Each structure stands twice: as C-alpha cells, then as structure tokens.
## 1
Amino acid sequence: MRAATGIAEVRAILAGVDRPLGFVPTMGALHAGHVFLVSAARAQCATIAASVYVNPLQFGPGEDFERYPRDDEGDRARLKEAGVDVLFTPETQTMRPAGFSTFVDVGKIATTYEGASRPAHFRGVATVVAKLLGIMQPDALYLGQKDAQQTAVVRKMVRDLDLGPQVRIVPTVREPDGLALSSRNAYLSSEERAAAPTLHAALERLRDLLQRGVPKETAIVQARRVLSERAQLEYLDVVDADDFEPLDRLRGNAFVIGAARFGKTRLLDNLWIH
Ligand code: AMP
C-alpha cells in the first residue's frame, strides 16, 4: 500500500495505476463496515484508493468533531490488510487552505431528516467529497447504505455536476443483534449498547407493517413501541431512495429510515427496499 498526505503526491501515484480505480472515502476509526466497502471495490476495480479524513466541515457546533474516535495506526493496518493500494490522509490545511471559500449546496435534499437535525452537515459532506473526487479522479465511488441520505446527496451532486464516477452503494454491515456498525458505537455505555439494536428492530417492524398495508401514521406509532425506553427518537419514516421525499406507502426504491439518541450518542439506520 502506498500512502500520501499531499495532493501532488497522491496524484503522482494515481497517474500510474491500473484502471478502473475504485475510491472509498472514510473518516477513519475503521470497522468491518469500512472493510466491506473496500472488498466490494476490490471485486470490481483494478486499483483501490481510500482516504481517511475527519472532515470538520460536516460537524456542527457542539458536535463530536474534537472527540471523534481516531486510530491512525489501526486504520492503516486495516486498510492495508483489506487490499487498499493507495491511501490518502490529507491534513485540514490541505483540504481547506487559507482563503478557501467554495461550498457545494445540493438544495432541498440536504435540508430534511439528517439535514434538519444537522443544518450544515451535507454542505460539508458534499464540498469535501467533491474536492476528493477532483483530487482522486476515480472511476467508481463506494458509499455505505448505512448513511442513506448521504448516498442520495452525493449521487445527486455527481449527477448534477457531471463529476464522473459511478456511485456504488454497499449494504450495511451489522452486529449479530442487528446494530449497524458505526464508529460512534464506541461512545455507547453498556446499557445504551444493549438498547441500541431496538432502532433496527423498529425499522423492521415499520417495514413489515407497511408491507401488510397498514397506513403509515399507524405503522409509525406501532413501530415506535419496539424502541427501548432509553431511545429518544428523532424520526422514523419511509422515503424515496433518490430524492428523499417522504412516501405515503412502501414501494420499490425506498428507504425506511430512522434516527435516535441513546444517551448522548445519535445513531441512524435504514432498510433499503429495492
Ligand atoms: P465514515 O467513516 O463513518 O464517514 O464512513 C465511511 C463510509 O463507510 C461511508 O460511505 C459509510 O456509509 C460507510 N459505512 C459506515 N458504516 C457502515 C456499515 N456498518 N456498513 C457498511 N458501510 C458503512
């Protein structure tokens, strides 16, 4: 695995690699979900590049940027073992040098659900992903289904701006009890960890009720009952997978989505109905 922190350095490495080039952007603190993204890319691309960059632009004031888990050595070892060929680990002054002032605004899709709860989040995600795509110039971009609204935002940006790569969505890796793997699971106390899989269970209940034709409002009320008392629900809904507009009933190409706080930790999850 070759590693670079500078833009000229990583471009020089990428200029000589076999195509297609698959790219897996991450914020580090890597787990089996990230490794699965790399494996998916490995199966389809001649060369795999990954980045580790904790993007300050996508954290709001008072969010967990400062305490976001960091494990540079562990990440490097995991990516190497997973089969990454090129690792890009830029510094913030590289991604956002003095005078940087251009931002990507994808419009309404960035203002609902995660965007309502975290107003500048998707602007930060879209801006950094656009910059990373400009640097890496991949043929395929690999994103986890776990962050469903992020997949819709990035696909829209890539389409609207003709940024080039195919965007490929990789299924969510879960713990045996259903909890979606997340770098933030490390924050959970043992009681919160025990309660956290009820978010996934509530999504499954909501999906099942909708599939049986139960009206959405009733189905949401019933699905909420599956959640642990420790969960503070932010939203449960069913949305179109492309534009994230709410749907009245379940159909193909939809996400059943949810977000809840367990103590101070905010978790999100979804089911993809193809
Ligand atoms: P992050 O480091 O949390 O920004 O995530 C980097 C990429 O890994 C994103 O595309 C995420 O959607 C994806 N990812 C995060 N958790 C999982 C998971 N449990 N299964 C599959 N992919 C995931």
Note: Residues 26-27, 33-34, 36-37, 143-144, 146-147, 170, 172-173, 180-183 surround adenosine monophosphate (CB under 6 Å).
## 2
Amino acid sequence: MQRKKDWWKAANVYQIYPKSFCDSNGDGFGDLKGIISKLDYLQLLGVDVLWLCPIYCSPMRDNGYDISDYYNIDPRFGTMADLDELIAEAKRHGMQIVMDLVINHCSDQNHWFQEALRDKNSPYRDYFIFREGKDGKAPCNWRSIFGGSVWEPTGDGAYYFHTFAKEQPDLNWESETLREELYRMVNFWLDKGLGGFRVDAITYIKKNPAFPDFAVDGADGLAGLNPGCQNYPGIEVFLGELAARTFHQHGCMTVAEAPGVPEAGMEDFVGENGFFSMIFTFDHADMDVLDGVWCRPSGWTVHDFRQGLFDSQLASQRVGWAANYLENHDQPRSLNKYLPAEIRNAAGAKFLATLYYLLRGTPYIYQGEELGLVNCPFESVEEFDDLSSVDQYARGLEEGLSESEALRLVNARSRDNSRIPFPWDGTEKAGFTTGTPWIKFHPAGKQINAQTQISNSDSVFSYYRQLIQLRNHSVYSDALIYGDFRPICTEVENLLAYTREYEEQKVLVFCNMQAAFCTVPLYQPAKLLLSNGNVELEQDVLTLHPYQAVVLGGQ
Ligand code: NOJ
C-alpha cells in the first residue's frame, strides 16, 4: 500500500471555468482579474488548488480547448501579467494554480497548422496527421467525438485527422520534433510556478497508423473511433517520455483525463512512478448514456453506480491515487444526473457531496457544485453554445427522435448546464458581469447564489466547508486523506457505504440512495461526525432516512 504523503494527496481542488466565473471588465466574459477578486471566497470555502480550464489564445470554437498560441493568454481572459498576479495572489491565499494542458490537438488557427496547410513541404506538415483519401473517400470510417468523420479534406486530395471538432487538428506525436516542441512549452509554464496541469484527452495521442475501417455503428454510416486511437498500444512510450522530460522534473501535480485505461494499465498511469499523479476515470460519470451517445439513455441503477464508483476506488487503491469528482465542465449538474426530481435540493446536494468527498483520492469541486446548482433549462437548440450539444441534437434527429425528444435528452446532458455564469448574488446580472453575458444566466440564480449561502450555516456551501474541515483539519484527517477505502454493507440494496481507516483512526460513511428508509447494524460504538439531516443513531443500529448521508467516527 502506497503511503507517501505527496502534497497533492491532501489537496482540495476547485475547478474554474474562467469564461463563466467572474467578469471584471464588463465584456460579459469571465477573466483572470475576476478570479483574483474571488480568492477570498475560495479561501473561505477551504480549497487549496485552483484548476483553470484553458486560458491560452484560442478562437474558442471549443471554449479554449482549441489553442492557437501555446505561449500566450487570450486577451479576453487578460494578460500574462494578470496570470503572474493570480499565481502570486493565490499563493498568498495558500493556493496553487493548475492549468489545463491540451496537447492531443490544437486549433486550426495555430500557425503550425496554417503553415502545414499552406505548404506540403513545410516542416510543420509532420506536426499533424495528413493522409491521402481512399477511392475518393476519407482514409477510414471513424467518427470524431463531436460528430462527422475524423478526416477533413484539405481540397487537394489530402485529409487531416481530428479526434474532436474539425477546427481541432490532432498533433502527430510520432514526430520527435513536435514532441520536443511540446516539452519545451510545458516546462515554460511550469517554470512560472504553477502547481501542475490537468492534462486533456491524453489517451488519444497514439493512433493505429493503419487506420483500418471498423463496423458501422450509427445512422451516419460511421464507426466509433476508440479501438483505433484510445489508449492505443505504444502510447506508454510517449507518456513515459512526457512525464520524464517535464512533470517529474518539477514534482508537480498532474491529473490526466484518461478514458479507456483498463485496470491492468492503472499502475503505469498512477503507480509510484506513474505518468501522472492521478487520472479522471469515467465509469460512474458516463454510466447514464450508452456509448457516449446522449440520445441513448442507459437506464442505470444505483447498483451500477455503486459498482462503477467502488470498483474504480479499489483499482486506484491497488496501485496509486484517485481523482474524485461528480461534476466538471463536460458534465451536467450532478443533482440532475444522479438524483430524482424530489431531492434536487440542498439536502440532495449535501448527500452527493458526502458520498464522493470522503472517498480515497483528491476531491474536485466544480464551480457552483458547492452551491448545489441544478441544470439550466434550454428552450431550443439555438440557445446552446456548446458544439457537442448541437451535434448530439442532430445525432438524435438522425437516429429518429422527434425534435422535442432530442431537445429533452440534450438538455439533460448538455455541457452548457454547468458552463453558464456563476451566480454570485441574486441581482439581475448575478454579480457576474455589468455587461451582457456570453450565454444566458440560470433562472434559479436569484434563490441559489453565493451571497445567500456564505452567511447561512445550513447551506450547501457551509456543508462543503465542514467536509473540508473534517477531511483536512480534524483528528480523522489521516484516515480521510491517506486511509484505506473499504466498501461495507454491500448486501444492502441502494446503500453506498464505506470505511476509511488509517492506523487507529476509522471513519464510516453511509449514503442511502433511495426513497425508502434503511437500517444498518453497527458492530462498534460510533460518534456522529456529519449528516445532511437528523440522525437516528442508537447503540448498535443506524436508521437512515431516504437520501440521508451519515458520517460516523469509529472507535
Ligand atoms: C476534454 C475537455 O474536457 C472537453 O471540454 C473538450 O471539449 C475536449 N477534451 C476536447 O479538448
């Protein structure tokens, strides 16, 4: 069992979507100065790492995940001086800054790509994946993640490869020159004093060079791309080199978005000398839809959820460390995804918080999750900014759904649910901007906002503070940070229960995920530490109300 107390194991990470967090200059677009102005709020919450979604120069086709200049800050977010100030001010507040690192692909506006397109003999041509067409068609039938073929014609018989949108050409990791260029850039940012990186879509960097056709699996006549380029063999060489040349030299924290890593591969990724400090896995996050297609709901059960979450805990525990989250900028709000309508309220938000925050690993809070925000209703497809929402809507129609059914399913899953402006207060512009926001406000912002919650000791915000207090500043901290994770009471349906244990310390967490009561026997005296409701704790039995979460200290 790994016991090394690396600094990032004790960290509490808060994810900021800069475009929507706080706008300091009234252009309707969140910025770095806005973030600086909210550091006191974040310090009050108790977090100590801030992960910023991409702030590099970008045409924003995919909100910054399409980088046109890796060495500069997009003027809409501010300047390099603003970032330096943020890093310094965050340090003064006891926080580190972690930036997004997008190196599977860049923007089609990046000068590397522009040069590669302009001149077939340019040295930049090899930075990307160009192939000739096959019988007048694309080189293979893979579907890109945002819809349509992964191949985009260049007009001269050639095609370039893109895992995501066509405006996001993939970088060719087979090129040593490109890899060197990327390592230089990564070290440039780390030398600035960053705490580390969240590494985007990294399991896509290696492709099957033969680009074979796969069996068609959709009405569009295309096939999912994963077998040819998700965690494809050989990727370990690139990742090992990346880690050795950059991250490992700085002792920084890295969290990789790494879909497709099987349990057998975990050690390479997050083991003692793994490529990364931790990875985001997707078992629980994507269990609500089939094959990532939003118009194909899976009909998941609490049993599936428990299995996905707990299996992934056990797998990471065997070899290393986990990154625990329910929400991020790619997911809808967790209250909507995991809980039925009647409990999408403060008690429900506290329930989910208890469930995931005390798991073994580093916890991540996505902006607004600490307020218990719910999804935002979008009335028509035109209201979405997110390109994947638009694509998934079209896909739904293509698969035979009616317009209203497609809209309903996209509403439930849209990434814009969590990307709309942060509600700082209940005023007309939510305290987010003085101008016109880039996307609409949440209609519930008048009731659910930071201002009303900060001063309310019973709010979701205050509950998160208590969780952080318990995890990091209590006599149970070693158990809750470094302790072993063990599922308990697995024979009880719809109950997610586990212990965390470190030497003499023991914490028990019970989450009754159903509309019925449930009782569990306690085999030892226990002390109530936290709950989202009134607790019925007797000598040797605990009665849990519907959707009640209870944390006990064992003795
Ligand atoms: C994963 C990011 O989280 C998502 O927002 C983005 O659209 C894709 N990668 C492409 O970069």
Note: The two ends are 23 Å apart (CA to CA).
